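User: I'm preparing a small set of examples for a lab meeting where we compare how different chains pack in three dimensions. I only have the primary sequence for this one, and I'd like the structure in token form so I can line it up with the others. Please keep the answer compact; I'll paste it straight into my notes.
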Amino acid sequence: MPSISSKWIAVGSIAFLVAGCASEAPSLPPDTTSVSRSRDLTLDDFTPEARAMSCDQIADERHKINDAMRDANGAVDANRTHNQILVGFSAFGGLVFAPLLLATENNDAEKNDITKLYERQDTLIKLAALKRCSAAPRQ
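Assistant: Understood. Below is the structure token output for the 139-residue chain.
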């Protein structure tokens, strides 16, 4: 039978883990593209710089964003195997290899870049649709 102190340690550990996951999700932007949208998209929804873009400029930027997303995702993928190996050693070695976990790379900068690129890509897709530009960026 576990002692009371180990029960409190378990309860505290679980509470700590749950508290780490208890952040609120950001609010969603207004729905302007679905069938049941709350309102239609207009040029006023975009910055003056975006409104001034031609269809060719939109396509060029989307192409650059696709390249940047491919590069950032490649950097994340490259570290995935490295991190999986280190975590595997730590799992088998217990406390002996636990310091290896400090050598894992979390790619925060790349992940933040990917998020910003997706947001910009979404804006350009909406702008291209509103301006009736061709559907896909040039390859």
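A couple of notes for your slides: The radius of gyration is 23 Å. Residues 45-132 form one domain.

User: Perfect, thanks.
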